Amino acid sequence: MRAKAASINTSLGSAASIRTFSVSGQVLTAPRPVPGLYLVATPIGNLGDITLRALETLAGVDIIACEDTRITRRLTERYAIAAQLRSYHEHNAALARPKILQWLAQGAAIALVSDAGTPLISDPGFKLVREACAAGHRVVALPGPSSVLTALSVAALPTDRFFFGGFLPARENARQARLKELAGMDATLVMFESGSRVQDTLRDLAAIMGERDAAICREMTKMHEEVHRATLAELARSATTLETRGEFVLVVGPPSAAARTMTGDALDDFLRTRLASDSVKDAVAHAVAMSGRPRREIYARALELAKQRGDQQAGKGAHDQV
Questions:
Q1: Per-residue pLDDT, 317
Q2: Would you list the domain boundaries of the chain?
Q3: Which of 25, 260, 286, 290 falls 20 to 30 Å from 86 in CA-CA distance?
Q4: What angle do CA 259, 168, 221 make, to 5 degrees?
């Protein structure tokens, strides 16, 4: 296996076989990992948050596949890692993925990192991991920094059950529809948002979810880290004064027992949205989980709305033929 790896390193222009990294001026040797794909969590802001295991792995692998080589190079230069960096991001994944799988098949040890945090969490990599597993390659996760868990830890909100919603839709109507879906979940919600949209999103959250407790977490672990805790209504009112530069994680507490029961109008809106793409059975299943209402009631309402939708489409078809 090592002979195979050597040929890979030669073809890729690898550094010397003895691999090292540096921590606080001390040079440490990094053994070459067993061939496979290593999912390495990297700092979300403070470069000091990297683990020793992650550094040893990044220094020892044949290749580091990363979203942006410029960003990952800041980390490798900080710790004197002479790594081969190869781009792997959503725009080149279709071309880059077969090459990575080929290198794995030849016995390479490859690390996958995102620009910040844990790979695959709102970042590319899922298809690569799935195909690597299907091909029988070793896949190892190295845990570490995560903006989701960091924000959840400092938000001072319930942590026994939470739902990660990723990035919300950019368009207003789609964003509001998504928030209405999330509103009935009996869990703390964690969402990413950009600085350019965070003020609008806070106003939507307040309008849809009311007086729930929430936290705005900005620039986690970085020099200008901020956490604002208040009700959604209070956060929305002060949104115009919010510093919008940087990266945001929004954390929203779960609804009260009374709030978990959807109003009739909200249930109809939810079912109409679902019925546009789902079967009655699937739409009902989602509504039962979200609404807090009895399944029998929801099923009857879904059938009525599906019938109305069918009648409207039939009427439109007849009108088009005239």
A1: 52
A2: 2-145, 148-252, 264-321
A3: 25
A4: 100
Cα–Cα distance between 181 and 165 in angstroms, integer?
11
**Does residue 110 sit in helix, strand or coil?**
strand
| Residue 75: strand, helix, or coil | helix
Alpha-carbon separation of residue 306 from 268, 270, 279, 283, 302 (angstroms): 11, 13, 9, 10, 6
pLDDT in the model for residue 160: 95
148-252 falls under which CATH superfamily?
Tetrapyrrole methylase, C-terminal domain (3.30.950.10)
Number of Cβ within a 10 Å radius of residue 284: 22
pLDDT per position as a tens digit, 96-151: 999 999 999 999 999 999 999 999 988 789 999 999 999 999 999 999 999 999 99
| Residue 142 parent element (H or E) | strand 139-142
pLDDT tens-place string over residues 166-206 = 999 999 999 999 998 898 888 999 999 999 999 999 999 99
pLDDT tens for 13-58 read 444 478 999 999 999 999 999 999 999 999 999 999 999 999 999 9
Long-range contacts of 304-313 (CB under 8 A, 24+ apart): 305/268, 305/271, 305/272, 305/275, 306/275, 306/280, 309/272, 309/275, 309/276
- Fold held by 2-145: Cobalt-precorrin-4 Transmethylase; domain 1 (3.40.1010)
Of 229, 231, 204, residue with least CA distance to 217: 229
* Separation of alpha carbons 227 and 138, rounded Å: 39
Q: Are 149 and 190 in contact (CB under 8 A)?
A: no
Residues 6+ apart with CB under 8 A from 137: 35, 36, 37, 101, 104, 105
8 A C-beta contact, residue 186 and residue 224: no
C-beta of residue 205 within 8 angstroms of C-beta of residue 236 = yes
Q: Which two tokens stand for residue 63?
A: 């290749």
Of the candidates 28, 158, 181, 47, the one whose C-alpha atom is nearest the C-alpha of residue 113 is 47
